[in-house]
Amino acid sequence: MTQQSRGSGPALQVQGLCKAFGPVQAAADVSLCVQAGETLALLGPSGCGKSTVLRGVAGLERLDSGRVEVGGRDVSSLPPEARHVGLVFQDYALFPHLSVLGNVSYGPRMRGARRPAAQARAREALALVDLSALEARRPAQLSGGQQQRVALARAVATGSPLLLLDEPLSNLDERLRAQLRTDLHALFARIGAGVLLVTHDQREALALAHRVAVMRAGRIVQQGTAAEVFARPATAWVASFLGHTNVLGGQNGMARLIPESAIRLGQGDCCRVTARQVTELGETVTVRHPLGALTLHLSARERALAQSHMLQLELDLAQVLTLPDDRESPPSVFREPS
Ligand SMILES: Nc1ncnc2c1ncn2[C@@H]1O[C@H](COP(=O)(O)OP(=O)(O)OP(=O)(O)O)[C@@H](O)[C@H]1O
């Protein structure tokens, strides 16, 4: 099943989206673009405004300003049902009284398809998420992961050129998340729709998205491919948020990012180990280095290199990045009183 393409533009284009709730500027001048067949992850900590952007795109939130185009069509002033987007929210919001098939064919029915055509489309979508065998069940008779897949099938069955997913894996346990991450990756590749995925989970973004837009306090602070943003974070805050362990404070408002790949063990200077903690995968140690305190996650094999008080390591200084240190004073989410 491939999604309908409407017009010739990208799947989604957002320009200058702004939304305030009283004094809180939840989204401030957000612009982004999702091409057909591309997945963009909107990634940021809780409360940074990700859902506000998604809801603004879906038409569920009245915007203060900004323009939203879906498949080249300006939908800024249209109600949600006229925007033609497929939505998947944290709580799947399935209709409890309808069967799986009824839930998934509901979208096409609402868009005017006759029952046989709507059901055929729903069955295609259910096959994509591997749920054909369960089409007669009610949502209450499904596991959490299965309900999640029904919600995805329902969004896919709309045939929309754009899917909006808000933390789609958040209610699932770790094993199911890993499984669905793989399934989603394959599904997105097959259907060819543009996907805007909201998540606070860096691993989810890196696993699923072609590009990521990192959000902080209502603003997008960096956009790029997942690999680019991880390898070259724009600021110390972005680096820390993405999970880099060694972002050392420096002078003049600058910080140093020491990527894991810059640290070679078993050669170079002997550094004093100041703390060590056994983890499920090995051990985390902190060592005193001339540049500052470095934290290293050692595998079970590497643990053998760390003697009781010393660890020999060398830094490849060419890989060390100097970044503006914006961690201490996050930009305010509150608007200046006018
Ligand atoms: N209806 C509302 N009324 C008042 N404030 C709101 C409303 N919706 C969101 N906010 C505020 O706007 C800011 C952004 O919220 P939003 O839900 O977009 O963040 P988020 O990044 O999606 O967070 P999370 O990851 O926790 O879902 C927060 O400070 C939030 O408290």
UniProtKB/TrEMBL annotation:
Keywords: ATP-binding, Cell membrane, Ion transport, Iron, Iron transport, Membrane, Nucleotide-binding, Transport. It comes from Deinococcus malanensis. It comes from the Bacteria. Gene3D superfamilies: P-loop containing nucleotide triphosphate hydrolases. CDD domains: ABC_Carb_Solutes_like. This is ABC transporter ATP-binding protein. One of its GO terms (molecular function) is ATP binding. The keyword Cell membrane applies. Pfam families: ABC_tran. Residues 12-242 form the ABC transporter domain. The keyword Cell division does not apply. SUPFAM superfamilies: P-loop containing nucleoside triphosphate hydrolases (SSF52540). InterPro entries: AAA+_ATPase, ABC_SmlMolc_Importer, ABC_transporter-like_ATP-bd, ABC_transporter-like_CS, ABC_transpr_FbpC, P-loop_NTPase.
